[in-house]
Amino acid sequence: SGLVAEDQLWMVPEQQRPFTVLAQLMVPFSRIARAEPHEALAPVLARATPSTSYITVWRDGRLVGVVTREALQRRLQTIPAA
Hints:
Layout: E1 2-3, H1 6-11, H2 22-25, E2 27-28, E3 33-35, H3 41-47, E4 54-59, E5 62-68, H4 69-78
Parallel strand pairs: 3-4
Antiparallel strand pairs: 1-2, 4-5
């Protein structure tokens, strides 16, 4: 029902970890941009919001991947200008 980033896990103070459940850290999928594996990048980026750092990739209603904002930025920097 949502996504928890590794950095969110490490930000929980050690003394709070036994009492913290993942649902408290989770970003619901409804707040994360969704894409299909063969979808063009432009419309996917148009759905992305600055508040989320991920784009989830779905096939037939199943989560098949997660792309980070950093990975997108690195990839876009390596594409030569037309």
